[in-house]
Amino acid sequence: MPPELDRLLDWSTLAHEPGSYVDAALTDSHSDLLFSVATADRAHAGERVAIYLLCEHQSSEDRHLLLRTLGYQVRIWERFLRDHPAGPLPAIISLVVCHVPGGWAEPRSFHELVAPLPATHPGLARLVPQFSVLVEDLSHLTDDELHAISIDAFARVALWFLRDGRDPGRLVAGLDGWITALAAVLQADDGMYAFLQLVRYASLVLSDEDFEVFRGTLSRRLPETEDDMASHYETTLQRGRAEGRAEGRAEMLRRLLALKFSTIDPTYHARIETASSDQLDRYAERVLSAATIADVFEP
Fold it and tell me: Please, is 283 exposed, middle or buried when counting C-beta atoms within 10 Å of its C-beta (0-12, 13-18, 19+)?
């Protein structure tokens, strides 16, 4: 948070707010977290601010992120009013954790989406909604800067994985610099479980060859993890990798169908969700020659 916001908020009061505000159509590719926190300054002591954390896990930029964020804010306020019909609306601070290759270059304020630009026309700016989002751009953070963030070891390692996950060579090459943090993950009460979740993520984003190098380095530098990794790899990791690859096939099929047929009936979404890997491959092969979307899903 910027220093002035950090001073405004009493972080000891931070509380998770249940619920999701993502459009049903986006739930497969977007997630959201909502927290509330009380203000710390005496003039507004005890007032709560809604901090909306939107974590974007996508490989490309989204020019209309601000429009979607505005929709999330409206839903948060509508739900708030159902429980507090007489109260003022809480302030919402939107934070985007971004790991787009090359960094975030899209608009950070809503007015940048509007033409003509409101600020250039007297009287227009005050009639157009305006807000900005905070962007935590992982792609521009060095290892030293990630290590310096005041969060626990698991979270720091997770940010490193997000930053380098689409560059397998960089992820494998950087492992030695993160051994100390990974060792710290193991020291927590649920350390081995957390450690194995990180290893599972690596198994999903790395090729078989790169993952073996990655796993071998972990076994050599953190020998106490070798037996647990071997056992976990034979069960959860292999199953998780198969599931991850099947989801990749499903997402590619959705994109092909959307490109050719524009809209996809919910019935076909359900067929994709329950299809085996072989079925997904067969459906994808049919897209090129299918005259209708029904042809793709013929038995």
Answer: buried
